[in-house]
Structure formats: C-alpha cells, structure tokens
Amino acid sequence: MNQNLYAADINRFTVQTSEFGNYSPSTTSFSSNGSTVSQQDSHSHVPDVYHSPDYTYTSHVTRAGVTDYADDFEYKLRELETAMMGTEHDYMESFDGSSSWGVGNQRTLTDIISRKDVKELLIACAKSVAENDTITADWLMSELRPMVSVSGEPVHRLGAYMLEGLVARLSSSGSSIYKALRCKEPTGDELFSYMRVLYEVCPYFKFGYLSANGAIAEAMKNENKIHIIDFQIAQGGQWVTLIQALASRPGGPPSLRITGVDDSTNAYARGGEVNIVGQRLASLARSCNVPFEFHGVMVPASEIEIKHLAVRPGEPLVVNFAFMLHHMPDESVNPQNPRDRLLRMVKSLSPKVVTLVEQESNVNTAPFFNRFQETLNYYTAIFESIDETLPRNHQQRINVEQHCLARDIVNIIACEGVERVERHELLGKWRSRFTMAGFTPYPLSSSVNSTIKSLLQSYSEKYRLEERDGALFLGWMNRDLVASCAWR
Q1: What is the pLDDT of residues 312-344, one digit of tens each?
Q2: Cβ-based neighbour number of residue 35 at 10 Å
Q3: Is the pLDDT at 20 greater than 50, yes or no?
Q4: Residue 393 class from Cβ within 10 Å (0-12 exposed, 13-18 middle, 19+ buried)?
Q5: How far apart are CA 143 and CA 148, in angstroms?
Q6: In whole numbers, what is the pLDDT of the chain averaged over residues?
Q7: Residue 225: strand, helix, or coil
Q8: b/e for 445-457, b at 16 or more Cβ within 10 A?
Q9: N or C: which end of the chain has fewer CB atoms below 10 A?
Q10: What are all long-range contacts of 114-119, with beta carbons under 8 Å and residues at least 24 apart?
Q11: Measured between alpha carbons, how far is 467 from 476 in angstroms, rounded to an integer?
Q12: 96 pLDDT above the threshold of 50
C-alpha cells in the first residue's frame, strides 16, 4: 500500500448528506454490481449522542463567530453557577471561612492566579471539585473565566471546555447539564466537513486506518476471499484505500465482503442509513474491478450477536475495531461486561486477524481528579498539534475543536456511570483484555512502519512514530496519542 492513496480517499469518497429525518433501521446488503443481496428488518433503538471518529463527535457549541461564541459561553457558565450556588445571600450564608486548602495553600492559589497559570489553576479547581470544596471551586472558576477563550493559545482553548465540564460536575447533575448546554447542532453536512478538516490537518485517523489496513493486507495476502466485520463502519472511509490496494494485487483481486455494524447516530452525518456506505463502496469496488458485497447491520455494538454478522463457513475473516471499543461499557459500568463479552464472541468466530486502534489515554476507571489530569495532558497535546497547522483565528479550527473534541472532554469530566461513554484505556489494559479472551498478538509488518513514516513526512516534525511491544504508537512530542496493534 502507498500513503499517497490517502491523499484522495476523502475526496473520492465524499458522502453528500441531507437533512436528518425519520427512517427505519434495517440490515441491508449490496454487491459490486449494484444489486441488493439481502435485506431484513432490525429493531429500532434510541440513538446515542456519540459518533464514530470516522467523521465527528458533536458538541453543544454554536457556530457563531469567536466574539459571539465567547460571550455566549461566558453567559452560560454564569447561568450555571447562579443555579448551582443559589443567590448571593445564600452563598454568603453558607460561607464559614473554612476551606480544604488552608491558609498556606490559599496564598499558593493567589500566586497561581496572579501568574495567570491556566493549567495550574484548572488543576487546583479540579482538586477542589474532587474534595467537594464548593467555596474554593467557585472562587477559582470566577478567576478562570476571563482567562480562557476559544480563540486563544491551546491551553486557553482547552481550558474553556474543561471549565465547562467542571461547572457541570460541581452542580451534581453533570449529565443533564451536559445535555442542556447543547445549542443548535450543526447539520450533517457541517459535521462531515469539520471532521474532514481534522482528518486532513492531523494524521491520527490516517495513522489508525493505514496501520490496520496494513495488518489486514499482510494477514490476507494469500486469500482469494476476504470477509471484514467493521464494528463501526460510519462513513466507510477506512476501506477506500484497502479496496484500491486489493485491486493492484498480482494475479488479480480477491472477492471482498464487508459487514458494517452501525447505529442510527451515524446516519445524521451521512444523511441516511448504512446502505449509503454500502452503495458507495460497491461503486468504488466496481470501478476497481474488485468483486464486492456489503452487509449493513443497524444494531448497537453492545447488542450484537453472531446471527447479525452473516459469517459464512470457511470464509477467511477479519474483525476491525478502529476507535470504537472505548465506547463499550465494561465491568465497572455493567456487570455483564459488554466490552469483554464482545471480544469473547469475536474470538469464537476464529478470525485470521483482529485490528485494534485506540486513543492512548487512561480515563476509564480512574478517580475523577486523576482522570481530569489525564484529560488535561492528553488534550493539551491534541490542541497543540492542531495549533501547529491551523491559525488561532481560523473559523474552521474553532469549529473542529467545538464539534469534534469539546463534547468528549465535557463527557469525561462531568459524567459518571452509564452516562460517561468516553472510556479510553491504555494499550496495556487492552492487551490484558484480548489475552483473557484467548487472543495472541499478530506481528505488524515492517512495511506498515515505513509507509506510516512516509505519511508523517507531510506533517509537523513534532509527531513521532514508535514501535514497541508489538504495537505502533503515534505521539506528539513526548505524549503517546494513538496506539495500533493486531491480534489473532
């Protein structure tokens, strides 16, 4: 495979979306000749508010200009704090002069405020929230408000969203406020355009898709039939380059069948059901002379059963988990542990290779204060990497951060239990889960490493690629951001 294939994959696979409307979820299949292979009804379900990284996670923030947004943002925070703290009289009545920080630490906080150290002030505020010290937390929030901005330096922009999460959490109603903060969401066309910008200016998704596709191509190089089960098909953009690569295989391409698991949330960005993805991939496969079938499954991954996956006996099988397993509840949320149940079910299918791509962040079961610090450090690197490419006053940058990143940040900070769906784990934990499910590591080919190195040459030299313990890590300076590996 060639990294140059990625340069055109979004352009060649542009999905024209329409206004989101009512539709009946279904299971649909397509072949490369454009005919429908099979169709069966599936149960409808309540859409989740989170989207695949193939296009975006929506945020509550409006598309207004920088000044209007900043005013609106500050107004909403003031509204929340008023509701949270009560009237000024109530606040003064509750004040007893005590604080978990003590006199000495109060001086330390005053020093941090005088230096306008946003990062340290955010950490101090989170500590107060963790200790239920609402007096100190409210004071620090009032100091933070004029320091943060959606158009400032990376730490100021990130601080605006993290402050929002802290306010929501301190109100003891993180989920309801998290949802209530949503203003008019972007249209599907806008969501897709924002994610397209993020896809182009940062190599995170290209790295993940390219590394996974490389492992798949290596594992299936001698097969004349391939069945891929993608547990988060979204826009299907990952498979454009694989289809193009299979078309150039010596001796002719294999027949390819993709089962795309999806839920109704993703329909908003692409403007319709999963069959849209099947039709477009079938069209691409036809132009590349690759025999192709598509089977769409409109069922949440946590409810998937083997009967949904249309597995055929003797057919070489690939399973792809790209940026999706962290949304699966685990044993800390649900005693049935859907996360590990899915891995055991996949293992029972005896796939030739299973690909895993996930953000390298530890926020699943970490206590709140540790989770806050991890989120601050992780997204500081993300915001800095975006800052390297897009100017700070660039409206597209503001849209990308608001609609592709902010909602995740608020969810991690403000929500708990089943309402916190952003539950990233480090590769070491994923390795334990896969091992307990019966998998063994599948070594990545050296050609994948070299291809990704070539890809990174068109980005900032601050990105780094490291191979260790059988996995590939993409990082920004000294921070790992995304990990990719394969199993069998």
Answers
A1: 999 999 999 999 999 999 999 999 999 999 999
A2: 10
A3: no
A4: exposed
A5: 10
A6: 80
A7: strand
A8: beebbebbeebbe
A9: C
A10: 116/147, 118/144, 118/147, 118/148, 118/155, 118/156, 118/159, 119/155, 119/159, 119/376, 119/380
A11: 15
A12: no
Amino acid at 43: H
Condensed to tens digits (0 to 9), the pLDDT of residues 388-433 reads 988 887 888 888 998 889 989 999 999 999 999 999 999 999 999 9
Contact between residue 227 and residue 353 where contact means Cβ atoms under 8 Å apart: no
pLDDT surpassing 90 at residue 239: yes
Q: Which two tokens stand for residue 378?
A: 């992780």
* Separation in Å, CA 238 to CA 30, 215, 233: 18, 13, 8
CB 364 within 8 A of CB 332: yes
105 pLDDT above the threshold of 50: yes
Q: Is the dihedral of CA 129, 135, 139, 142 positive or negative?
A: positive
Name every residue whose Cβ is closer than 8 Å to that of residue 5 and which is 6 or more positions away in sequence.
Answer: 240, 241, 244, 245
| Helix 368-387 / helix 154-170 crossing angle, nearest 10 deg | 150
| Rounded Cα gap, residues 107 and 239, in angstroms | 57
For residues 11, 195, 300 and 365, what is the CA-based torsion angle, rounded to 10 degrees? 140
With H, G, I as helix, E, B as strand and everything else as coil, classify residue 474.
Answer: strand
Quote the crossing angle between the two packed helices 238-247 and 204-219, to the nearest 10°.
40
